[in-house]
UniProtKB/TrEMBL annotation:
Organism of origin: Georgenia halophila
Membrane topology designation: Multi-pass membrane protein
A UniProt-annotated Pfam family: BCCT
Protein name: BCCT family transporter
Family assignment from sequence similarity: Belongs to the BCCT transporter (TC 2.A.15) family.
Region span, Disordered: 1-26, 614-659
Residues in coiled coil: none
Location(s), subcellular: Cell membrane
Keywords: Cell membrane, Membrane, Transmembrane, Transmembrane helix, Transport
Transmembrane spans: 63-81, 101-121, 141-162, 192-215, 243-264, 284-304, 316-339, 373-390, 402-421, 461-484, 496-515, 527-547
Compositional bias of kind Polar residues: 642-651
Length: 659
């Protein structure tokens, strides 16, 4: 290398002392013409774009609202006017789905878990869910606490004691003898399988993809935002994106309605026990849902959303406290032995559990239909709701931290909670405390447990309070999320819209419960599975879309350039100078440098960071100073929004009390 070449290498490709972050050279170059990049910045140097850095107008998407609203309202009216015909159609759709698509739900659950593990361990795991250098919005302790909150819900109270007891009394086909020691441990493993890693991998996929699109690429908190790179901006903001958001709303409506229906079932059972009534009737269920729906409407229109957050947090404390009481007042020593054994049985049986399918026979197919496929469909339905919540609290964390945290932290909590509830139910049954059980009635099991504990007269009331708060807060939060999906991403959707979705959700819960023949749970399960089919396909597309977009991330580009540059330099250095060489940045011939295999001017790399105004028109922007060419600032938008139509809402960054 000549002295002139060495000096040129130290100065950079243009002969200047440095190249600034925006790509603008201090001195013009006579021998190098920089390609035309948006805002004169190379895609590898873009620090990322946050959702609150963008300019957009929020309004009700009439197509999404009309399609989802008309379909679901029509279903509620049909179900109330003629539940028999709805039941016939639902049964036929459910039977066809299980016969032809049951495998798909198992495949989706497995593919998503494997994809999330690969993602977290790959080079993409270091990419932040935010801009370069952005610190996490919440401390690790607060983030973990909120993930715990996301993991706790109606399931701990309803299925926690009932599901393991069911598997203990009636083990899954081709496993163990009923009521044996082996059946007890396998019952815990089967429960953990349904509520553990697979479930939270689905939430991690949706939440991570939404967080990446919003906090790294500057898009709205919409399910459709994930697909901009896959579908193209025009289709994503058009019919394809509207179809995805409509599927997300319908899946969320039915999935959340199922949870609300389960809460109503158990509250109704508590009312029967406390009042001394003979049985739980549809009239009691409808009355419970009506009262709780009134509570939801009051919470939605009162503007006390921050109070709802505190109430939700208080409810989590009550749930943990209740579980702790069961642990301390119940068979504590037995539980201390069962908890680690159940977890190890789950880990050891994981591949066996994943291998179960219709090929194992009709009995296995029936079991899968009633349990495993139902759970996969339920988690798929809940993924837009829970995904947006965990996306909101995870800004600034790396993909690796996010994925592993979301999968492992809530799962570990559920292993403990379900181990305590399920283990207590099994222990009490073995000791005769629950009497003779021919068939497990899920709403009754928890009340039967507390009847054998101290403070038996107070416990049912505490259970009903916890369930009622869960119903109201879940309906409130889920309705806000559906309002976000209906208003193109507004964090402050109109209260009328929020109330509408909440009432539709309650109506669907009523129809689901009325459809149940032998058991109200049948109606819940069949409709959740059928309505989750479209979004199950969306889940697979999310995997493809997210991985494809990560390939063009600035962090990925820099890593790709670094690997190529270092590899080429080391080979060249050893070849020329043996051990005595060092690395310098010098101008390479076109097609021979670190980015030889990358067309950095391609729209896949550059289109996403072209800044636009509120109407989608390109506008100048300085990435170094954060200044807009037309002088726009967030304060300007605040002034403008005060005089705009009611459809236009504030920017997301000013809404801090939504999920």
């Amino acid at each position: 290398m000549t002295e002139d070449e060495s000096a040129a290498g130290r100065r950079g490709p243009t002969g200047s002392g440095r190249t600034d972050r925006r790509g603008g050279d201090r001195l013009p170059s006579l021998d190098y013409a920089r390609p035309k990049y948006p805002h004169n910045i190379h895609p590898a140097l873009v620090p990322g774009i946050g959702i609150d850095d963008q300019r957009r107008l929020y309004h009700v998407d009439k197509i999404v609202f009309g399609a989802a609203g008309v379909l679901t309202v029509a279903f509620v009216i049909w179900g109330i006017v003629d539940p028999a015909s709805v039941g016939t159609v639902a049964d036929a759709a459910y039977g066809w789905t299980m016969s032809h698509l049951g495998w798909m739900f198992n495949a989706v659950a497995t593919v998503v878990l494997v994809a999330m593990i690969i993602l977290s361990l790959s080079r993409y795991g270091k990419i932040p869910l935010g801009k370069d250098g952005e610190k996490p919005e919440f401390s690790t302790f607060s983030w973990v606490a909120m993930l715990f909150a996301a993991g706790l819900g109606i399931g701990v109270m309803f299925w926690g004691p009932a599901e393991p007891l069911t598997y203990f009394l009636s083990p899954p086909p081709l496993t163990n003898e009923a009521e044996s020691v082996e059946a007890m441990h396998y019952a815990m493993a089967q429960t953990y399988y349904h509520w553990g890693f697979h479930a939270w991998a689905m939430y991690a996929l949706v939440g991570g993809a939404v967080a990446y699109a919003a906090y790294r690429r500057g898009r709205s908190l919409l399910m459709s935002s994930i697909f901009q790179h896959l579908f193209g901006k025009r289709r994503t903001e058009g019919w394809a994106g509207q179809l995805v958001d409509t599927f997300a709303i319908i899946a969320t409506l039915f999935g959340t309605a199922a949870a609300l229906g389960i809460a109503a079932l158990q509250i109704g059972q508590g009312v029967v026990i406390v009042s001394g009534a003979s049985e739980l009737t549809n009239t009691v269920l409808l009355l419970v849902i009506a009262v709780l729906a009134v509570g939801f409407v009051i919470s939605a229109v009162s503007g006390v959303s921050r109070g709802i957050r505190y109430l939700s947090s208080f409810n989590i404390v009550l749930t943990i406290g209740f579980t702790g009481l069961v642990f301390l007042l119940g068979p504590t020593l037995f539980l201390l032995n069962l908890l680690p054994s159940g977890v190890m049985e789950y880990v050891g049986s994981l591949f066996d559990l994943m291998a179960r399918s219709a090929s194992w026979g009709q009995e296995t197919l029936d079991f899968q239909s009633a349990w495993t496929v139902y759970y996969w469909a339920w988690w798929i339905s809940w993924s837009p709701f829970v995904g947006i919540f965990i996306a909101r609290i995870s800004r600034g964390r790396s993909i690796r931290q996010f994925v592993l945290g979301v999968i492992l932290i809530p799962s570990s909590l559920l292993f403990i909670a379900y181990g305590i509830m399920g283990g207590t139910a099994i222990s009490m049954y073995r000791e005769g405390g629950l009497g003779v059980i021919e068939e497990v009635n899920a709403p009754e099991v928890l009340f039967s447990i507390v009847d054998n504990l101290p403070f038996a007269s107070v416990m049912p009331l505490l259970i009903m309070v916890i369930l009622a708060i869960f119903f109201i807060t879940a309906a409130d939060s889920a309705s806000v999320v559906m309002g976000i999906l209906t208003t193109r991403g507004s964090f402050d959707p109109p209260k009328v819209l929020v109330v509408f979705w909440g009432l539709v959700m309650a109506g669907i819960a009523v129809v689901m419960l009325l459809l149940g023949n032998e058991s109200a749970l049948q109606g819940l399960q069949s409709l959740v599975i059928v309505t989750a089919v479209p979004f199950a396909l969306v889940m697979l597309l999310i995997v493809v879309a997210w991985f494809r977009e990560l390939r063009t991330d600035p962090h990925t580009l820099r890593q790709q350039y670094a690997e190529a540059a270092v590899s080429n330099a080391v080979v060249d250095g050893v070849d020329k100078y043996d051990d005595d060489f060092s690395l310098q940045v010098v101008r390479a011939e076109p097609g021979e440098g670190a980015g030889a295999g990358v067309d950095s001017t391609h729209a896949d790399y550059t289109e996403w960071y072209q800044r636009t105004d509120e109407h989608g028109e390109p506008v100048g922007y300085d990435f170094e100073t954060g200044e807009w060419a037309d002088g726009w600032t967030p304060e300007t938008e605040e002034d403008d929004s005060a005089s705009t139509s009611p459809e236009v809402t504030d920017t997301p960054s000013r809404r801090e009390d939504t999920p």
